[in-house]
Amino acid sequence: MEKRIIHIDMDAFYAQIEQRDHPDYRGKPVIVGGRSQSRGVVATASYEARKFGVHSAMPTRTAYKLCPDGIYVRPRFDVYKSVSKEIMDVFLSYSELVEPLSLDEAYLDITHLVSRERTAKSVALNIQRDIFEKTHLTSSSGISYNKYLAKIASGMNKPKGTTVIHHGNVMEILKAMPIGKFPGVGRVTEEKMKSLKIFNGEDLHGWDEADLVREFGKRGSSLYRKARGIGTSELNVDRVRKSVGKETTFDHDVNDDEYILKVLEELSHKVSENLDRRQFAGRVVTVKLKTHDYKTHTKQMMTTNPIFKGDEIFHYAYNLYHEVKEPEEPIRLIGVTVSHLEERSYRNLTIYDFL
């Protein structure tokens, strides 16, 4: 099956967090990157500030001239990193193949999730929904058959956008795109291209590869391929997975123990399948739930021996659930995670594992 790659990009990430955490900032131009009189640069600007021409990497003094009434705040990178980890957890709940690019964007390979009944776009929408429910932040997604096109797609309908580039629309999109919008085309390259009468993708498409290599060196071959929608779909995944978990968000708040425990049992077996596929076992089981008011509660327990079987995971999860769940409080999310992973070996197994 052809690859399905999603690029998720948070919408004005730092500024959006500030607006989330400070209700009086909402709907107002917020510029993150230092005080207005400093010599710093803008880390990011809210969409309200962008209407004044403020953008990232702009000197803060320039931003202040464009938007003197904006709200200028210093970055809180400890907070941003914490939120980024929450978002990464959402990504990893869908796919093991995740390539983070920064705190606020990443590629995901979701090929294994796509079927006739479930489209890549529906998966992207579910990921965006889960990010919002977990963090109260919006994101945009791009879906395509390679990384480069997915990244273009994610920026086409910001904020809160979901865009698909497929074989049927790729050339129409690329030919109409300004040359400066192509990933990897910086300001210097853009200026040189314009001097060569290359103003958009259609102009670039008209050049031979040999001529582009003559003008731009090795980058010329890459530009030739990009003009034709050709790019890699292989993710650079060097992250060592430290836990495996599954969670689900209910359509409405639930306070039925029998139903919730049935869902928890299903999640435990899904975690087991994931562990078994990767030949891992774990020593710590954690149950997480989120109440109707978005408060998250967790409880964990260390196992006697490394475990990976669904029934074993559910045994611990069942007890943890009853310890953390308040009887009268409905919940909107339930999840189970196995952590402190190690590769399975024969010394971890009993005779029953071979029957």
List the helices and strands and how they pair.
Blueprint: E1 5-10, H1 13-21, E2 30-32, E3 44-45, H2 47-50, H3 60-66, E4 71-73, H4 77-94, E5 98-102, E6 105-109, H5 120-135, E7 139-144, H6 147-154, E8 162-164, H7 170-176, H8 187-195, H9 201-205, H10 209-216, H11 219-226, E9 243-254, H12 257-278, E10 280-291, E11 296-307, H13 310-324, E12 331-343
Parallel strand pairs: 2-4, 7-8
Antiparallel strand pairs: 1-6, 1-7, 2-3, 5-6, 9-12, 10-11, 10-12
Helix pairs in contact: 4-5, 10-11, 12-13
What this model shows, in words?
The protein has 355 residues and is of the alpha+beta class. It contains 13 helices and twelve strands. It is globular. The two termini are 35 Å apart. The model is unreliable at 346-355 (pLDDT under 50). It has a five-stranded mixed beta sheet. Strands 9-12-10-11 form a four-stranded antiparallel beta sheet. The protein has a three-stranded mixed beta sheet with strand order 3-2-4. Helix 4 (77-94) runs antiparallel to helix 5 (120-135). The chain is 38% helix and 23% strand. The protein has helices at 13-21, 47-50, 60-66, 77-94, 120-135, 147-154, 170-176, 187-195, 201-205, 209-216, 219-226, 257-278, 310-324, and strands at residues 5-10, 30-32, 44-45, 71-73, 98-102, 105-109, 139-144, 162-164, 243-254, 280-291, 296-307, 331-343.
